[in-house]
Design a protein that fits this description.
alpha+beta, eight-stranded parallel barrel, globular
Length: about 950
């Protein structure tokens, strides 16, 4: 029997429909044998479904609309963009699915229908702001009580535009985040998500407001059959399903069974792990029950272990970006069982730890780890190691062997989030033991803190590995259509490469903030680097900043990629956490301004442009390579030099620079590819770098762009000059692991899945792995004609002495940066007052960038004045600086130390104070000081 409701309907009719749906659902919950009876409210449920597949289709919905072109704006308002405002609309619903809405026919298969009428009152400003990206169209209102709305949102819904006789003209599914965020706003602050075991019982809670039923399955380990299945109860105010099971279940495993409508599939029973999992079994098949305060999960000495002192300011950060597996997989000084694992960092006598210790002693403050949350792209059990043949340096055989097993090997960068709150299992010594990854992650943090290094995490809240009904989709199989950002047709946006999350939605923002707090509170994470941060609202990032600071009792530094692209570009959906929108937030974004001026071209260069588009570091105009554009001239070099100064000045929007035309110009008025070159309001809002894990390493890019015949030692000097620009720039200093050992990926532009072979590090300093085969065909094959001859050119490959030179040079640069707060000013006004560039304007020598810092009266300055000089030319350069006449400059003490990496400042640099005349050695960075 079907019960239809018209308009708001009566409570009696609604109750009848609800009871009919419950009776039908109870039948679905019966075991196959029919020997037992169970309902959604029974105390114990049969466990067979716990051991079934990841999804069971309870009722297919083949006739439902494939697209969701209408949106809920709030709990009672809908909009169908582009639809006729004055037409007749009805909202059909069914608890089972099976609605057929065929054009020209009446709707079939619905349990009921709700009449809609055009919105008469203006929409609230908050709704207008949230949905300003949605086009005009029919804006419709339904008049239902909240309990009826809650019931409606658990059903299959189809919005229909009808003709006067009730026949379908057009039909669509709906996007429901606007309704859920309005109706269940109380969930934003509701406590208890996840699992908490205690002697009094084990509490489970999951947010699933559109589910018809939720139960929890409990297992003895990560493989055995379920031992029990218990129903959860719904709190109608929050949409949280919860239950407390008797007994302390810590150490057991669990997952949820969620009965819910999924567009495109029907009514499904999803067996799914917990989005708030704190750990998991092997390959993330099951969540693990734990209290992270349990002493059994703490390595010895954890509670009393010291942490590095808080930083004075964000600009004090100097960061080394490192991949956990890269760090030790090839290090023979690490115990074999620990290579590629968290525990490699606990081996204090290893070569890798000696390298990090030396960097910390020189002034490095932070080690940032590429993703260490649970990611989906590496098999945690049974991964394979490719057998790479011994082949010539330009051979395709190496990459063919690596890529043949890339989907099954043990390597990936990890930008494929599976569970945000759990440590990655492939880095643990026992992937099947939920406790191992927790303890060993903490042991890693404790060991790095013991070196004096703060620990940062690279986090990826902007997308997940999968969505929809994919087996490795978690969020979307619990609340379908909510956690991901949808396009106008209701499809998941993928501008980030993968399934974009929607942190503008309340509970996705909450998950991000809760997750970051967990890492800070329970793992003592000191800072975060946010992948594609520009896809997240600034407001969500600022809320996260407040929460993590409170959890840590100190400032937790936030930096990220503020790139502006995709469906959110230019504030299309919200104020972004992007470069041009973060001024005043204190959150740092990576700057591409100086990066591109130094390296040349841009990250998207392909083919011959890889060679032709030289930058200030590698020969633009002054040392053209064979493919350089002959039309480029002095003006191009002058502009590049100005952009280098933009970076040195912290990319501050209002800093005045005398540009190549001789005019004092605020940095925001200088052009960078059609954008303002300066955008930050404070130096701590900018991250400076010339190399990170993305794109070619600096050494490999210079292999493309430096002129043929450039010696291996000069290539090392260009590398050091690039590191020096980062060290001397106002803002956060960011270095990619191995930049100081001339790291090569054999010219691979995107090594995220290129295996250990193309991502190696050598802490013995004998090899940088240039010329170890053509890089993987995917993303590189089009450039092979330019790559192959360079890999085969033995003169490019550095000797161990060149590697040692670059290694020691970074340490010296870190010492120089640490020696004076003048390199780390934390206020835009201080930068404007204390930093000037004496060699500017149309008559400048653009091959030498000079910066002067005034230290008088500044705490921690260490010197009255500092003058740094960066000569990119392969020849010595003479520079007359009238402003420096009569000053008794001396080389910085680091240059004069007996073990200084670069002898050229001491042996070849000259300064004539009477004339203010400087001679700067070729491809050299040096610093003068005035005591």
């Amino acid at each position: 029997m079907r019960h239809r409701t018209r308009g708001g309907g009566s409570r009696r009719d609604a109750g009848c429909a609800r009871r009919a749906a419950q009776c039908w659902l109870a039948a679905l919950l019966l075991p196959a044998s029919g020997l037992a009876v169970a309902t959604a409210h029974a105390s114990t449920l049969p466990t067979g479904a716990c051991d079934a597949g990841f999804q069971t289709v309870l009722a297919a919905d083949p006739g439902a609309p494939a697209e969701a072109r209408a949106l809920w704006l709030d709990r009672r308002t809908l909009r169908w963009p582009g639809a006729e405002a004055t037409a007749r609309y009805r909202l059909y619903h069914t608890a089972r699915g099976g609605i057929h809405a065929v054009a020209g026919e009446r709707v079939r298969g619905a349990d009921g229908v709700v009449a809609l009428h055009p919105a008469a009152a203006p929409l609230p400003e908050s709704v207008l702001q949230r949905f300003h990206h949605v086009g005009d169209g029919a804006t419709l209102v339904l008049d239902l009580a909240d309990d009826r709305l809650r019931d409606l949102l658990t059903q299959s819904l189809v919005l229909v535009r009808e003709d006067a006789s009730g026949r379908v003209r057009e039909a669509t599914a709906l996007q429901h985040p606007g309704a859920l965020d309005d109706l269940y706003a109380a969930a934003t602050d509701a406590p208890g998500l996840g699992v908490l075991p205690s002697p009094a019982g084990t509490a489970f809670s999951v947010w699933a407001p559109t589910a018809l039923a939720v139960s929890v399955c409990v297992y003895a380990d990560d493989r055995a059959s379920a031992t029990r299945r218990e129903p959860l109860r719904l709190d109608p105010a929050t949409g949280l399903w919860s239950a407390t099971l008797p007994g302390d279940l810590r150490g057991r495993y669990y997952d949820y069974l969620v009965d819910v409508h999924a567009r495109g599939t029907g009514l499904v029973r999803n067996r799914v792990t917990d989005p708030y999992s704190v750990s998991l079994g092997a390959d993330s098949r099951r969540s693990w029950i734990a209290d992270l305060d349990d002493p059994a999960l703490k390595p010895a000495g954890w509670d009393a272990a010291p942490r590095p002192a808080p930083l004075r300011a964000q600009t004090d950060m100097s960061i080394y970006e490192l991949h956990v597996r890269d760090f030790s997989i090839g290090d023979p000084t690490v115990e074999a069982a620990h290579r590629g694992k968290y525990l490699a960092f606990t081996e204090s006598g290893s070569a890798g730890m000696a390298h990090l210790r030396a960097l910390a002693q020189a002034g490095l403050t932070d080690l940032h780890l590429l993703p260490v949350y649970d990611f989906a792209s590496v098999p945690e059990s049974g991964c394979v190691t490719p057998q790479v043949p011994d082949a010539p340096p330009d051979s395709p055989l190496q990459q063919a062997a690596v890529m043949a097993v890339a989907e099954r090997d043990c390597f990936n960068w990890g930008y494929d989030p599976f569970h945000f709150n759990a440590p990655e299992g492939s880095y643990a010594t026992d992937t099947a033991d939920g406790a191992a990854r927790v303890r060993e992650f903490r042991a890693m943090v404790m060991a790095l803190h013991g070196l004096g290094l703060r620990v940062g995490m690279d986090v990826v809240y902007n997308h997940t590995y999968a969505a929809g009904q994919d087996e490795r989709s978690v969020l979307d199989r619990i609340v379908p259509g909510y956690y991901h950002r949808l396009d106008a047709a209701g499809n998941v946006e993928r501008s980030t490469c993968c399934e974009n999350t929607a942190t503008e939605h309340r509970m996705m923002a909450r998950l991000m903030v809760d997750s970051a707090e967990l890492w800070v509170r329970h793992y003592r994470i000191d800072s975060f680097r946010f992948d594609l941060m520009g896809h997240q609202p600034r407001a969500a990032m600022e809320a996260l900043q407040r929460r993590v600071d409170a959890a840590a009792g100190r400032r937790v530094q936030l930096i990220g990629e503020g790139w502006n692209f995709g469906e959110v570009a230019d504030g299309a959906r919200f104020v972004q956490a992007s470069q041009l929108s973060l001024a005043g937030s204190g959150i740092g974004s990576f700057s591409d301004r100086a990066r591109d001026a130094l390296r040349g071209g841009g990250p998207g260069d392909g083919g011959a442009d890889k060679v032709a588009r030289q930058g200030w570091l590698n020969g633009l105009v002054f040392a053209p390579n064979a493919l350089a554009d002959p039309a480029l001239g002095r003006d191009d070099l002058l502009h590049a030099a100005d952009l280098v100064r933009v970076g040195l000045a912290g990319t501050l929007r209002d800093y005045l620079l005398t540009t190549a035309d001789g005019s004092p110009t605020p940095l925001h008025a200088i052009d960078y590819n059609g954008q303002p070159a300066g955008y930050a309001s404070a130096p701590g809002e900018v991250v400076n770098y010339v190399e990170n894990h993305d794109n070619e390493t600096l050494f490999d890019l210079n292999a493309f762009r430096l002129p043929s015949g450039t010696s291996a030692h000069d290539r090392a000097r260009v590398q050091v000059l690039g590191m020096a620009t980062t060290a001397f720039s106002q803002g956060v200093a960011y270095y990619h692991a191995g930049i100081d050992t001339l790291r090569s990926k054999s010219m691979d532009r995107n090594s995220y899945d290129s295996g250990d072979w193309f991502n190696r590090l050598d802490w013995s300093y004998h090899d940088n792995f240039f010329g170890t085969g053509l890089p993987p065909a995917s993303g590189n094959e089009g450039a092979w004609p330019w790559i192959a001859p360079r890999l085969a050119d033995a003169s490019i490959k550095p000797a161990s002495g060149d590697i040692a030179f670059a290694r020691d040079a970074l340490r010296d640069l870190l010492r120089i940066r640490a020696s004076s707060t003048l390199f780390r000013l934390d206020d835009a006004g201080e930068v404007a007052a204390r930093l000037r560039f004496p060699n500017t304007g149309p008559a400048q020598n653009p091959l030498v960038v000079a910066g002067h810092l005034d230290g008088r009266g500044h705490p921690g300055a260490g010197f009255r004045e500092v003058l740094y000089l960066l000569n990119t030319s392969p020849q010595a350069q003479a520079l007359d600086l009238p402003s420096e006449r009569g000053k008794r400059y001396a080389l910085h003490p680091v240059h004069l130390a007996a073990g200084a990496a670069d002898p050229r400042p001491r042996e070849q640099a000259r300064f004539d104070p009477a004339r203010g005349h400087f001679t700067v050695p070729p491809r050299t960075a040096l610093v003068y000081v005035l005591e």
